[in-house]
Design a protein that fits this description.
The longest helix has 17 residues. This protein has a three-stranded antiparallel beta sheet. By secondary structure, it is of the alpha+beta class. The protein starts with a helix and ends with a helix. It is built from five helices and three strands. Helix 4 packs across helix 5.
């Protein structure tokens, strides 16, 4: 992956238009799962953060986990190479 791709920022409104609920996004930020950069009053996320969010949302959808549980599963998988 190029350095340019890693430095891209994705606005929160794009993620919400793509199906991520605003309330879920706010909750992920609140628990520290992702930390947006705020520019001009809007949140922006890195590609890696977007991938984390989508992984957690897939776990919620497919396994029925709650938001905190899904975030923990993603963190454990990242830490232990799963």
């Amino acid at each position: 992956m190029s350095a340019l791709m890693r430095s891209e920022r994705y606005p929160a409104d794009l993620l919400c238009r793509e199906g991520l609920a605003q309330s879920a996004l706010e909750a992920y930020v609140e628990i520290g799962f992702v930390e947006p950069v705020e520019i001009g009053g809007e949140w922006y996320f890195t590609r890696e953060q977007v991938e984390r969010l989508y992984r957690a949302e897939r776990i919620r959808r497919e396994l029925g986990a709650n938001l905190i549980g899904a975030a923990l599963v993603v963190e454990v998988l990242e830490r232990y190479g799963g």
